[in-house]
Amino acid sequence: RAIKAVTPAVVSIIINDYQSVIIFNQDGATTQKQKKQAGSGTGFIISADGYILTNKHVAKAGNPETAEYQIILNSGKKYYAQYIGVDPLKDLGVLKIFDKDLPFVELGDSDKLVQGMSVMAIGNALGKYQNSVTKGIVSALGRSIAASDNRGNVEALDNVIQTDAQINPGNSGGPLIDLSGKVVGVNVAIDESAQSISFAIPINDAKVVIKSIREQNRIVRPRIGIRYVMLTPELATAKNLPRPSGAWIIRAEDDPDSPAILADSPAAKGGLEEGDIIIEVNAMKIERSNTLFNVIQKYKPGNKIGLKIQRGDKIIVRTIVLDEFK
Fold first, then answer.
1. Which of 167, 165, 144 is nearest to 42 (CA)?
2. Which superfamily does CATH assign the domain made up of 110-216 to?
3. Are 199 and 189 spatial neighbours (Cβ–Cβ below 8 Å)?
4. CATH numeric code, 222-324
5. By C-alpha distance, which of 272, 249, 256 is closest to 321?
6. From CA 4, how far away is CA 22, in angstroms rounded?
7. Which residues are within 8 A (CB) of 247 and not within 5 positions of it... i.e. 6 or more apart?
8. Which residues of the chain does CATH 2.30.42.10 include?
9. Which residues are catalytic?
10. Where is each PDZ domain found (predicted)?
């Protein structure tokens, strides 16, 4: 029943774009631009007027200014879609087809997921088999991974769902659903070094994107302008820090020349410093189960937020005004 309710809204996405092709003739070789398939994936319709949620790396398989996005519904009906935008912080993208009374999915609550819960992944497996279904369980929550696309671009993703429901390359962008048929995640990646390990972005993270599209017709994310790591007791002990939890402002180990506080950012204007530990935002405690990223996403660019910060052995308070992540 759950599969039957969702599959009408799950779509195949085929992206065609101009690519350089070498043509040999009697005068020698010439290079021409020809439109060819640049990528494919899965998406799902989230509204009756045709908004489609997928992965960023699917939506950007071609150049959005020149690519054609063909959408194939489970019924076989075909549309050309408009590129709406991609999320600068998560592997999420949005396309739109223009029709009305389209089938769409029901969104669930990914915060209610627990380890061992049964889930199913639906997608266009390997780019060939439309609406293939795999079943598994939630293996873990809150994972951090590095996801790559077919062009070798790598993106760090935090707070993802780990599942043993098999996700093939063509399933990317498809829905992860619970047994009631509600979408709880967006399939995003597989661990090619291990069998039966796949990942999905929690649907609650995607709801910020959906709300932004509906209100502003583009994807808007608030920004604080820092580099940081979420503390664990083990890390705090190893670094001799004064508390076991919070968001520790520090430059990346693999890029020590990049500042921890970005120039002209809300954090810089608000007087934050490298080494500060953000322990609360508007009285909400910052910890591994309630990360700084997730808390900041509750606000909009232009909102004022109050930060409680540990700086050395002192607790200080700062107010900053969020701006927009570009």
1. 167
2. Trypsin-like serine proteases (2.40.10.10)
3. yes
4. 2.30.42.10
5. 272
6. 46
7. 226, 228, 229, 230, 231, 277, 278, 286, 291, 292
8. 222-324
9. 57, 91, 172
10. 222-313
Instruction: Identify the CATH number of the domain defined by range 2-17+38-96.
Output: 2.40.10.10
The pairs formed by 232-238 with CB atoms below 8 angstroms and a separation of 24 or more are 232/288
CA-to-CA distance for 248 and 241, rounded, in angstroms? 9
Domain with CATH 2.40.10.10 in the chain: 2-17+38-96, 110-216
Give ∠ CA 24-26-30 in degrees, rounded to 5. 35
**Tens digit of pLDDT for each residue in 18-62?**
776 676 776 767 666 777 777 888 999 999 999 999 999 888 888
The single-letter code of the amino acid at 192 is E
- The pTM (predicted TM-score) of the whole model is 0.79
d(CA 233, CA 249): 16
Positive or negative, the CA dihedral 219, 220, 226, 231 is negative
